[in-house]
Design a protein that fits this description.
Number of strands: 39
Helix content: 25-40%
Largest sheet: 9 strands, antiparallel
CATH architecture of one domain: Distorted Sandwich
Distance between the termini: 42 Å
């Protein structure tokens, strides 16, 4: 885990420069005057969220304004780095930075890749500079210093004082519109700068083309097309100001270099042109009457056109009521967060509800108010009967994020996700489901075809509202052809050969799990032919297992394991994806009983798990692997392949060992501080793990309809389920000295097994644990009381 994860967070004092105090206080009074939420649980949850958690260390989250699953994520950007240095600023903001570049409207939450950062605005009091300038050199550009003392972040709201301008900037959002309020000081000219050159990282030629247009009614529109992580991505915007413009300048800084030393043609004079196109565009807007006053700026985005962005603006924010929009955002978050009513000490409440908050951002909405969106074929399509979403970080989120959303979000939202995946497959030039898609475009990032378990898990849980036959067909197609690495060889040999494809061991294992979820759904639909085919393929993990070493390994086409072999080695393009043999040899979530037998029985499994957690590992061994963080021995909680490992003790009849390891993980990998996430949040997966684990159970094998019981970390929690029923988890006697399960009951009846079924949760009721100081080595140990494994099924 990062070295700074234990550093204390400064206590924010929330001081304001006195010239802006009155204006800010009035805005706060207006927000406070909004009608109170009717749901006390939601209000308490909202107050507990700290959006700064994860903005330090390697969490890569952002603190800005967004509504649940919103298309706009309006947040401050503190650095724009060259591509090779951009990893730490994947969300645009790092808590330890001291200057703000501006506020852009699109961000990823917690990813390991930097992109987006579209339509950056910066309020300026005084002289306008067109370049960002250098951090630590005030006045070298338009960036401004700021202090955490003057910074506020709440769900749907962000505010900061730009010290170099003495401007108070406030942000809020609707689904498709970002709303800014800037309070300018007296005595200095007021401006707003727009920069279409910037993204989360600088890359020569990243902006393929862009446009700025000032329309006769004062509306500013534009677009840009980029060739970043998703090539050919197009985004359009429309912007309006609450005060009339007194002047403007449009610059193409690429052309300004050409004209340097020579007068440009009259039609290219910055103060005259109403439209400009090029690859390096920046504009400045002047407001003669804004000095000492507030200016509201609203910006809508669209994947379709500038006119659609205007329509989004008119549909969602027709007026200038910043506080009204903020109140709406607060109400949306209050409702979403009220899905869990938690009784726990304040540090736990802050961590829990911030984790829940982070799980409710993506997949994000990606369609205009009229239902149109841009697909992976770069054409415009119409969503009919559902709301289209994108930003699917599937290699991460199928594990816990999507299973959590089936419990805390309406069925329609989960159905929308499935419909979005199916629509993307129909529009894909390859005819397969998305791998890692955002803004409608495919990045082909990571491995596996993990849209498959997302759909299968939803279907197995009874979520409908989509064409199930089409879904199964799409799943089979995605497992049968297309650009997935080594899929042809996998179908031929039963494994991916390392002499023909990198990361072959990981791909074999992940394909096998995905195949099992196809079999599960096919069997539930009565398609025994498909189920038989994919049940057989689900056993392909055995081709990766080396009985001699006890590790999963990569084979060559001739069947021999690749030599030499070192289980500690990791590297991009090696036998494993973002891991080594110690981390990936546990990836058989569909058949842990089969893995246990292959290792030689329960005792062997437990012994090898202990070797993982108890190993003395020098963190420097992973210095070349920025994604492998949060180390406990070889266990790497900062990366997804390890997330289910602590729960495997329960499969070997030792659930108390799972309880011990979970305590160790929770104590060292999470904290209610900016650096409180040990690794990338990855669109909510790290946070979903926390939510499930705090409640006391976890979906080791999505599509099994089972959750493995770990141990509760909160005294009481009640879920309000999508069907309106309530399910409570109560931990009697829980404290730091009583951390083991001594007894469990479900609706008053003894629960002697190490798993919980999804239908038992949906039925509502009460799961009650009695906690004790010493492990109970008899509870849930019988083989019949252990979680699902395909090889142990009749």
């Amino acid at each position: 885990m990062p070295a700074d994860v234990s550093s204390p967070r400064p206590s924010p004092k929330r001081r304001l420069p006195w010239p802006l105090l009155l204006a800010w206080a009035m805005s706060g009074l207006a927000a406070a005057a909004a009608p109170p939420a009717t749901d006390d649980a939601g209000r308490r949850a909202y107050a507990a969220v700290d959006p700064f958690i994860g903005t330090g260390g390697e969490g890569h989250t952002f603190p800005g304004a967004v509504v649940p699953f919103g298309m706009v994520q309006l947040s401050p950007d503190t650095q724009i780095k060259p591509r090779k240095e951009a990893y730490g600023w994947a969300a645009g903001y790092r808590y330890d930075d001291t200057s703000v570049v501006g506020f852009s409207h699109t961000h990823f939450s917690g990813t390991g890749h930097s992109d987006l950062g579209d339509v950056l605005l910066m309020p300026i009091a005084g002289e306008v500079r067109l370049e960002r300038g250098e951090d630590g050199k005030p006045g070298s550009g338009y960036r401004s210093r700021f202090r955490h003392d003057d910074e506020v972040a709440q769900p749907g709201y962000y505010a900061v004082t730009l010290d170099d301008y003495q401007v108070r900037a406030e942000l809020t959002a609707t689904e498709r519109v970002g709303v800014h309020r800037y309070s300018f000081p007296k005595g200095k000219p007021a401006h707003v700068l727009i920069d279409l050159r910037t993204s989360m990282y600088d890359y020569p030629g990243k902006v393929l083309w862009s446009r700025l247009r000032l329309r006769p009614d004062g509306t500013v529109t534009g677009f840009r097309e980029t060739r970043g992580w998703a090539p050919g991505r197009q985004l359009y915007f429309a912007m309006r100001f609450s005060r009339p413009l007194s002047g403007h300048q449009f610059h193409d800084t690429e052309q300004d270099v050409i004209y340097k030393g020579f007068p440009p043609p009259a039609e290219k004079t910055p103060a005259l042109r109403a439209q400009i196109e090029g690859r390096q565009l920046v504009g400045a807007f002047d407001f003669a009457d804004a000095a000492g006053q507030s200016l509201v700026v609203k910006v809508a985005i669209s994947p379709v056109s500038e006119d659609s962005a205007i329509a989004n603006l008119d549909a969602e924010v027709p007026g200038w009521d910043f506080d009204g929009v903020r109140a709406q955002a607060r109400a949306s978050w209050t409702q979403a967060l009220s899905a869990v009513d938690l009784d726990a000490p304040e540090p736990m409440r802050k961590s829990f509800y911030t984790a829940l908050y982070h799980t409710l951002m993506g997949p994000s909405l990606f369609m205009d108010s009229d239902g149109r969106y841009r697909g992976p074929d770069n054409a415009v399509h119409q969503a009919k009967g559902y709301r289209h979403h994108s930003t699917f970080s599937l290699w991460d989120t199928y594990r816990a994020l999507h299973p959590l959303l089936t419990l805390v979000q309406p069925e329609q939202r989960n159905s929308d996700f499935v419909n979005s995946l199916l629509a993307s497959r129909r529009e894909s030039p390859y005819g397969v489901l998305p791998v890692w898609a955002f803004h409608g475009q495919e990045t082909w990032c990571m491995i596996g075809y993990h849209a498959v378990p997302v759909i299968a898990d939803a279907y197995m849980k009874g979520i409908r509202g989509y064409d199930a036959d089409e879904a199964l067909q799409a799943m089979v197609a995605s497992a049968s052809y297309g650009p997935y690495d080594g899929i042809a060889q996998y179908m031929e040999l039963g494994y991916v050969p390392i002499d023909e494809e990198g990361e072959a061991a990981s791909k074999t294992l992940e394909y096998a799990y995905d195949d099992w979820t196809i079999a599960r759904m096919a069997e539930a639909m009565g398609r025994k032919d498909i189920a038989a085919t994919f049940n057989k393929r689900a056993g392909n993990w055995k081709h990766a297992f080396d009985a001699k070493t006890g590790f999963m390994r990569a084979r060559k086409r001739d069947g021999a394991f690749r030599e030499p072999f070192d289980p500690t080695v990791s590297g991009y393009g090696s036998d494993y994806t973002e891991g080594n043999a110690w981390q990936y040899s546990w990836y058989v979530p569909q058949d842990v009983a089969g893995l246990t037998a292959a290792l030689g029985g329960d005792a062997k499994l437990v012994d090898k798990l202990d070797q993982v957690f108890d190993a003395k590992v020098d963190p420097k061994i992973f210095e070349h692997m920025e994604d492998i963080t949060g180390l406990i021995g070889w266990y790497a909680h900062g990366n997804e392949p390890s997330h289910h490992v602590a729960y495997l003790y329960a499969y070997a009849g030792q659930p108390w060992r799972t309880q011990e390891r979970l305590k160790q993980i929770m104590a060292t990998q999470y904290a209610p501080r900016p650096d409180g996430l040990a690794g990338n949040d990855d669109l909510g997966q790290m946070s979903a793990w926390y939510v499930f684990t705090a409640l006391g159970f976890y979906p080791v094998a999505p599509a099994s309809n089972e959750y493995v019981i770990g141990r509760p970390f909160v005294p009481r929690a009640t879920l309000t389920l999508p069907n309106g029923k309530r399910f409570s988890v109560i931990a009697d006697g829980l404290d730091d000295a009583h951390t083991y399960i001594g007894r469990a009951t479900l609706n008053g009846q003894p629960l002697d097994r190490a798993y919980l079924r999804h239908d038992e949760i949906l039925a509502g009721g009460e799961l009650r644990f009695t906690m004790q100081a010493q492990p109970d080595k008899a509870w849930a140990t019988d083989p019949k009381q252990r979680p699902y494994s395909m090889s142990s099924q009749p």
